[in-house]
## 1
Amino acid sequence: VIMVGPGTGLAPFRGFIQERKTARDAGKTVGETVLYFGCRTKAVDYLYQDELEEYEKDGTLTSLYVAFSREQREKVYVQDMMNRPENKKQTWDLISRGGHFYICGDAKHMGPAVLNTLLNIFQSEGTMTSQQAADYLKNMQNKSRYA
């Protein structure tokens, strides 16, 4: 599962991650869990830093990618993290193996930007045309693999 939850969009994902940790601790097999989290500044907005980093350290989170949009001269957002070559490959690998993709947060700006990034990943990593990528995403939505 890939989760993208900047700011308060992290809230529902925390519960999901906690559930996966409980399952892992009980010896159950849990698939890969990737989280993209974004906020303005690390010192003020990264409220669950210790918790999330511990989940990555203990293997509950396969990967944790954090974007701080106001920590450097140029703003860095979650979609920028997704667009890194190694992350594009990881995203496509998980999705092509039946993984789920969930977004929670700003539907006005971040949502469309992440959606466009995901479609571009389908095209570049999945060697699809733009129409094939849109159809692939629609199929994921129909199968409740994208929300």
Note: The helical segments are 11-25, 42-45, 49-57, 78-82, 85-96, 110-125, 130-142.
## 2
Amino acid sequence: QMCIRDSTIALLREYRLEKKPIVQSNKNLIFGNTKIELTTKTPWSPPDTDLYYEIGALWLFLDFHDKGKIGPEYLIECKNLDIKPVAIPHREEILNYFSGQIDQTDSIDPNFNANQSNLKKRDRKEQKTADLDSVVKKVKGSDEQGTKKVTEESKEGGGGGTGTGEDKQEQDIEQQALKEKKKIALQALKYEKPLESKSICLKKLGKNYTFVFDFFPKVSAEGEKAGETGGSKITLLQKILRSPQNPKPIIIVPSLPIAGSLNLVNARDFLEKGEYKDPTKIQENALTRKVSFKRAINGKGVIFEVVDSIIHLKEDDWKRVIAVFVLGSNYEFKGWPMADNLATMFSKIRGYYMKYRDAPENEIVKKWNVKTLYLKRNKRYDDISIFREFWADLELSLIHI
């Protein structure tokens, strides 16, 4: 009855609850900067079974459930990806856990070991090696043995005047050094986001982690210094958020309502919730020239502005423009600062072209460095996958140094 924080399970649940994009690429799942193979075993193992579901099996079931396609199409895709379908008796608990309705479940095995997932649970428990607590005990025992040795040496060298005082001082120095190492370790753990348990990582043969005590203080100090001095290695998003006037990234959309594209009346629903609505069927408010929405980027809430005109954008505002949705016209960039060099503009501002998949291709757009997002005309349950694809791409440009 525990939720293992440092596991693929936690990563999948976090991305599901926060509606972060999960991208499938060949035989991998991409969570931000983390790539995990579809066949990676997870701790999800229903009670009284020796089955451990792979990350791909859980993800695919949840994804197809979102689309309302749990049927023959789901089974066909499982076969195509060589993934075991989620058994019907196990589905309800998976849905409840990954939707946040429950926080604890007996289906997460606290004794999970990826290297022993093919063994039966009972056999694996018997073969389980020392975990982090036992490692700490070994280190502690080593420290006690060292202290005992120092004490015995001080007794042997006994009556030599100041010998005992010098040994005492040496012990104090060692104890102080140990405290400093523990302090460094605690600081390092704040930045830890592992995908396996500490015990699994620590007990791998040939691994030595003493370098952390020298490496982390140096990196931490450099990071603090860069933050104080405004170091050069910062992301586009960080530059925008540090703006004292208006720290909000800007997305520009077309002003015309075109079926299959975005404009101001339907942009918020799609960019915030992944719900596409045909702008030609929505009554437009002529007074609305800007909308805002909030999205979590790397765990931090960021407010985005969406505009359909550049008339009110000042020179500093252009530094906040991160994306533009295009229609594919030679005249749509008239009056833009980089209209005479679209190659440069699309290298600084991410371009997107949204259309219905069955609509004709735009020959002009093919010449531009923009990403095309294909909507299915009559399948709105597929919009969420396009929404995730968009944010996976845009977030990459926002956090890239």
Note: Residues 163-190 form the longest helix (28 residues).
## 3
Amino acid sequence: EFEVKITSYGTSWSGNIKLGIMRCQGQISSNTPRYSLEALNHYVWTSNEFCSHTGGILQKSSYGSMSLDNLKQGDRVGFHISEGGDLSYSVNGDNQGVAMRGVYEQGWNVYIVVDHYGNCTATRITKASLGSSKCDDTLHLQDKK
């Protein structure tokens, strides 16, 4: 469990941030596509849709009670993967429900995807329990301009 906090936000573009997971067997390939939705075995929440890309097929479904495009500087999005492999998110502590079931599959590694898109220019990933402000560690990400 952890959360992503938007620490820098612009207004020059449309869109905001894409968040999700990537599954792969073994190590992450050095030729992973630049854009999260183009990569196989990516499962990403973007705007108000949850997108999965498996077997060469991109599927989209409505997700969440709000659009990620409405997030602003200071907003937080929490990730949670249950022991049973259910992926869910929260926005500023408000649970958005299960986005995907069966995240864990034998032989596959699971990696987090944070895609700065549009107006989101920097985030802080905080290891914490959802809804908690207690942090174990932080990692700051910022776009290269």
Note: The chain has no helices and eleven strands.
## 4
Amino acid sequence: MVFELYVEIGRVALIKCGPNKGKICAIIDVIDQNRALVEGPSIKDGVIGVPRQSMRFKHLQLLPYTIKICHTTRTKKLTAAWEKSEISKKWMESAISKKLIASERRKGLNDFDRFKLMKAKQKRQRMIRMCMGPMPKK
């Protein structure tokens, strides 16, 4: 498989750690080989963006989305390009986003919810075993 996700101006990335963990942002400028200037615009539907800041590449996970912006573009133009490319919509439909939402939901379970989940999994496995029949011995 050929590596296709390069660090470039306009590349969308997921923040892996820090106070903005789990939010997406766009690379505005590359400072040096270890850091980039990033910003995530505030979208009208209540999503709080990422303020413009320097961030290490180790703390970013590059996503397969890019937006057409210029070098060190302003927030207003970044927001317009973000909405034109429909990045928020694409992000909500992606598998990575769905996994993050599911893990957050699992973290919010209490003890009884975890017990009910365990029992539901056991019931499902029992049904599968009954449909498949006993496994033949070698």
Note: The mean pLDDT is 90.
